[in-house]
């Protein structure tokens, strides 16, 4: 993207002002902030800011030795837009806005809300920065006939860039955007994931927030390089056929004095009343979603990452906390809406507008909600009364499944509903099945550590978990480290234990994940109808023996049979009823020796025999591996073209 140098009278046309104050400006980043410009033949930088309660605003920086008042901005809008031009200011100069409020005695230095680049922490200055970059992902971005997100395989590898891999010889320095591109792409490609999802890369002052306390809504963090370095990472992943989803945080922001909070001596971006403007869980501020200019700010931020950085989608963090005014609040600590209810009507309308905007401007973008309640129709179109997201995380599935697999197998038969309950709601939304970072921190242990039993059983349970996840309706997400059975919980100050990949037991887990991804991507029955009841068929369940059998189907009716044995006891001559006669090919056996299992299985598949069972005409007699899962593909019947093979009738004379 080339920002260009513009001749300057004003950055703002009447349309820009109108849309911004109306709350519908989707690309305010093109006018606010710092932009190259020319005035009277002299090159420099045009600065603009929204600060309606300011009595005066000036810009200070490297270009004027940080001198107060050297470059004042002029009020160009009665609604509080300030503008100014600094000749000689250039790319790379640090700057801040100095705001003198109408409130007596309040003056403050603020970073640019629309800043594109920031100096590394603990510094807080914005940096003038061009966003010129020669992209090489044209083939990826220009695909006009991408498969429908609903019908395409989607397997997401969730990554925290700072702790995925480090440079040991440099005091364990995190890899930069450019350094991580190839090893990350190699790893993701080897394992077969379709996308990576990055924990927030937006600038944040505290590394321990993992990026979820954002101060720079238009800037990739400088911890790992420049904006162009981040573009290179996205570009490289695209050229390797890997999509990029970014976590985006419109639910709250930190109260750091240099950032958005109490911006111009008023609660400009946040609600003034702490019952609506303060988040007790995260000690942070909540956006005022009813304020039109704040809506334009957030809409523009979302579109910025899709437009400028070629992101393939946004995972919107903390949606539940946006939807409810009483979220994590006791009686008397929240204010009802104008209708007397608990819903945040401003946030709901903003999310709908956001999803409608992306559906029009970037219809191929994935908009995914992290939403943990039963709020209806999160992933249904706005026109039908929904919020308009394409997908929603199924956090209930994650919690119930991990709870179940943490139980001693001897007790599991009394808790089978923790697995089967999902069938009651699994098509109410378009779900992503996450095994995310939230489940492997703060004393919760690693995925492997959550599994019941001794070392062998834990690894078998983990392999079973992954096969179960990939078999169920819904798209898939796995946080880094889980793919090879990391033993310790995630530590953002640490690094993944890559040495485990040299251990055959852990490498086998990674090999299984790779196999699951291949089978998932190549088998339409496992992904084509993820969001449709026609894509799932219950076969049978045996609570006493903890065996669970279902089928996945594609649009042509082809089936994959899935059997999970949730105890460490092998089951021999286990009968399952099926419709299609013939040889059922074994696609996956999580107990295979190559994955670190015991090798109990069916030697590649089984033939049916004529014996009605489970309401079907044929049966399979199977060996079920201990703590294992099987995928078996139905016999493939060749599709016959009657025009080419049917015997022609003789012509009558």
Walk me through the structure:
Helices cover about 20% and strands about 25% of the residues. The radius of gyration is 28 Å and the shape is elongated. The strands form eight sheets. An eight-stranded parallel β-barrel has the order 10-13-16-19-20-21-22-23. The chain starts with 5 loop residues before the first strand and ends in an 8-residue tail after the last helix. The chain contains 15 helices and 31 strands. Helix 1 (about 15-20) crosses helix 7 (about 290-305), helix 4 packs parallel to helix 5 and helix 13 (about 455-470) packs parallel to helix 14. Strand 1, helix 1 (about 15-20) and strand 2 (about 35-40) form a beta-alpha-beta unit. It is an alpha/beta fold and about 650 residues long. It has three domains: about 5-125, Immunoglobulin-like, CATH 2.60.40.10; about 155-250 and about 285-435 and about 460-480 and about 500-525, Glycosidases (TIM Barrel, Alpha-Beta Barrel); about 535-635, Sandwich (Immunoglobulin-like), CATH 2.60.40.
End-to-end gap: 73 Å
Instruction: Give me the secondary-structure category.
Output: alpha/beta
CATH fourth-tier homologous superfamily of the largest domain: Glycosidases
Helix-residue proportion: 10-25%
CATH-derived architecture of the largest domain: Alpha-Beta Barrel
Rg is: 28 Å
CATH topology of the largest domain: TIM Barrel
Number of domains: 3
Number of strands: 31
Annotation field: number of helices: 15
Query: Low-confidence parts lasting 5 or more residues at pLDDT below 50?
Result: 639-653
- Work out the strand percent: 15-25%
Instruction: Name the shape in a single word.
Output: elongated
Compute the average pLDDT.
94
- CATH C-level of the largest domain: Alpha Beta
Biggest sheet character: 8 strands, parallel, barrel
In what order do the strands lie side by side in the largest sheet? Answer: 10-13-16-19-20-21-22-23
């Amino acid at each position: 993207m080339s920002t260009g140098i513009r001749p300057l009278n004003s950055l703002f046309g009447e349309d820009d002002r109108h849309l911004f104050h109306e709350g519908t400006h989707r690309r305010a980043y093109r006018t606010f902030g710092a932009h190259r410009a020319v005035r009277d033949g002299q090159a420099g930088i045009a600065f603009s800011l929204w600060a309606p309660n300011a009595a005066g605003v000036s810009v200070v920086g490297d270009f004027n030795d940080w001198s107060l008042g050297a470059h004042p901005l002029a009020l160009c809008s009665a609604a509080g837009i300030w503008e100014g031009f600094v000749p000689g200011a250039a790319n790379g100069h640090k700057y801040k806005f100095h705001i003198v409020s109408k409130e007596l005695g309040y003056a403050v230095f603020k970073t640019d809300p629309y800043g594109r680049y920031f100096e590394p922490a603990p510094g807080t200055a914005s940096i003038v920065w061009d966003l010129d970059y020669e992209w090489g992902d044209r083939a990826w971005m220009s695909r006009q006939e991408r498969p429908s997100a609903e019908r395409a395989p989607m397997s997401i590898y969730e990554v925290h860039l700072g702790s995925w891999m480090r440079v040991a010889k440099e005091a364990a320095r995190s890899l930069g955007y450019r350094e991580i591109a190839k090893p990350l792409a190699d790893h993701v490609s080897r394992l077969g994931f379709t996308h990576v999802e990055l924990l927030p890369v937006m600038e944040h002052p505290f590394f321990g927030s993992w990026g979820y306390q954002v101060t720079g809504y238009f800037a990739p963090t400088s911890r790992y390089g420049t904006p162009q370095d981040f573009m290179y990472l996205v570009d490289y992943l695209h050229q390797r056929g890997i999509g990029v989803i970014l976590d985006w945080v419109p639910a709250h922001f930190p109260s750091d004095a240099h950032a958005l909070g109490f911006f111009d001596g008023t609660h400009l971006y946040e609600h003034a009343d702490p019952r609506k403007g303060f988040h007790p869980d995260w000690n942070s501020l909540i956006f005022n979603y009813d304020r039109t200019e704040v809506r334009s700010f957030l809409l523009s931020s979302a579109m910025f990452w899709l437009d400028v950085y070629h992101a393939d989608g946004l995972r919107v963090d903390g949606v539940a906390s946006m939807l409810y005014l009483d979220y994590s609040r006791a009686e008397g600590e929240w204010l009802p809406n104008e209708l007397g209810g608990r819903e945040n009507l401003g946030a709901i309308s903003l999310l709908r507008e956001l999803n409608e905007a992306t559906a029009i401007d970037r219809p191929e973008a994935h908009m995914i909600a992290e939403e943990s309640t039963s709020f209806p129709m999160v992933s249904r179109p706005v026109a039908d009364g929904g919020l308009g997201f394409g997908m929603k995380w199924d956090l209930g599935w994650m919690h119930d499944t991990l709870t179940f697999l943490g139980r001693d197998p001897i007790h599991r038969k009394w808790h089978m509903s923790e697995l089967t309950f999902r069938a009651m709601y699994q098509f109410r939304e378009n779900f992503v099945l996450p095994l995310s970072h939230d489940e492997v921190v703060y004393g919760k242990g690693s995925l492997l550590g959550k599994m019941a039993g001794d070392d062998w059983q834990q690894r078998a349970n983990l392999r079973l978990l992954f096969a179960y996840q990939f078999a169920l309706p819904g798209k898939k997400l796995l946080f880094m480290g889980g793919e090879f059975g990391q033993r310790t919980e995630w530590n953002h100050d640490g690094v993944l234990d890559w040495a485990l990949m040299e251990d055959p037991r852990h490498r086998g887990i990674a090999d299984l994940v790779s196999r699951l991804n291949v089978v998932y991507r190549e088998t339409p029955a496992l992904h084509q109808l993820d969001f449709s009841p026609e894509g799932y068929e219950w076969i049978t369940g045996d609570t006493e023996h903890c065996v669970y059998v279902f089928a996945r189907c594609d649009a042509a009716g082809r089936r994959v049979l899935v059997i999970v044995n949730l105890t460490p006891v092998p089951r021999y001559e286990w009968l399952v009823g099926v419709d299609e006669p013939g040889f059922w090919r074994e696609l996956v056996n999580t107990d295979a020796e190559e994955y670190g299992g015991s090798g109990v299985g069916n030697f590649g598949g089984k033939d049916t025999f004529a014996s009605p069972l489970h309401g079907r005409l044929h049966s399979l007699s199977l060996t079920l591996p201990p703590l294992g899962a099987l995928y078996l593909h139905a016999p493939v019947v060749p599709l016959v073209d009657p025009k080419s093979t049917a015997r022609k009738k003789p012509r009558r004379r």
